[in-house]
Amino acid sequence: MNRRFDFGRLAVALALIILLIFGIDFIRRSLIQLFHKQPEIQLEGGSSVSDTVDSVHEPVGTGAATTPASTEDTSSAAGYDTERFTTVSKPYTEVGAGPLILVNQEHPYTGSGSELASFSGTKNDSFRLKNFGLMVHSDLLTPLNDMFAAFSQATGLKNVMLYSTHENYAGGMYDTTIPERQTGYCVDLSLLQDDGIGRFTGADKYSWIVSNCTQYGFVQRYPGDKKNATGLEENTWHYRYVGTPHAALMKQNNLCLEEYLEWIRDYTPSGNQAAITVNGTYYEVYYVPAVQGNTTEVPVPKNDAYTISGDNIGGFIVTVQATIGGSGT
User: What phi and psi, each to the nearest 5 degrees, are found at residue 38?
Assistant: First the structure.
């Protein structure tokens, strides 16, 4: 006797299998979100905005990288979630571009300075300029205005002066040659006083800037306890823009830029991104090694906003402004 094939039962079975798959994926995402959130940590200092930062995930592995990541291929980026990520092509020359580039005697600046901008028509009245010829990278205009406006509101002071930015001044008050000034991501602070211009030490009311600069993407670039890593003595007046999530991660983990660029290599797009929440915004950060002398296919999220910065060493750092829990949905 011939048996009739029951398409109805087959359809039901297939539907149950599909529901089971989606159910398992939902549980996985829920568990990731549950354990992704860590207790909040209060940043030092007061601010007119929320200043809480979540703890960062530890990377999968045995510790921070001690040797540079390979630049021969991008195999370390393999295994990422293809449902969430696609790729963009980045030429090797772009390793030297972005707010996270390391510029020193060993890693010279290779950019053109084409994105420098003046303060003309953009500066508020909460800080001073040594002269209107000063220029910074265009990314700094808004956070500088916002930071000094908040500082002035908190302290009543408006006498912090930008002494130098993208140039080295021979014979000036801050005449130390700092190669990264060329990038436009740096500002040297001073104080406009009744008897002239004084050095910025971050003391007294000015400690507000030291405590709160990370909320605006800035770090004190050369702390006194990091000389072995940076190669320079303490510069209490020299600040570097790296972007808000990176500044918060550096402060939370007590890392200077050199140390941070080593540390971030343990975080990849394959499920162990560094995650942090700053001022209510959730970020994920990961590293992708560049293919030396060639194009690198950098995994980026399909549905979340992101930026890519080179490190000027041999890789790219992707910063994702992600949906809650990093689900990408």
Answer: -115, 165
Please classify residue 293 by burial: count the beta carbons closer than 10 Å to its beta carbon, then call 0-12 exposed, 13-18 middle and 19+ buried.
exposed
Those residues with Cβ within 8 angstroms of residue 218's Cβ, 6 or more apart along the chain or in another chain = 143, 147, 187, 239, 240, 241, 242, 247
Q: Calculate the CA 198 to chain-centre distance.
A: 31
Helix residue ranges, H only, the chain: 7-36, 141-155, 207-212, 227-230, 244-252, 257-263
How many Cβ atoms sit within 10 Å of the Cβ of residue 132? 10
> Which band of pLDDT confidence, cut at 50, 70 and 90, is reported for residue 75?
very low
- In whole angstroms, give the CA distance from residue 103 to residue 69: 18
CA distance 21 to 29: 12
Whether 98 contacts 183, CB under 8 Å: no
Count the neighbouring beta carbons within 10 Å of the beta carbon of residue 69.
18
Q: Domain 42-326 belongs to what architecture?
A: 2-Layer Sandwich (3.30)
Q: What does the mean pLDDT of the chain come to?
A: 82
Distance CA 269, CA 301 (A): 9
Burial class (CB in 10 A: 0-12, 13-18, 19+), 259: middle
Output the CA torsion sign for 140, 143, 149, 153: negative
Instruction: Judge whether 257 and 290 are in contact, CB under 8 Å.
Output: no
Boundaries of every domain in the chain? 1-36, 42-326
Q: What local confidence, expressed as pLDDT, does residue 113 receive?
A: 76
Instruction: Using a cut of 0.85, tell me whether the model's pTM lies above it.
Output: no
* Residue 328 · residue 112 · CB < 8 Å: no
Q: Give, as one character, the DSSP assignment of residue 133.
A: T
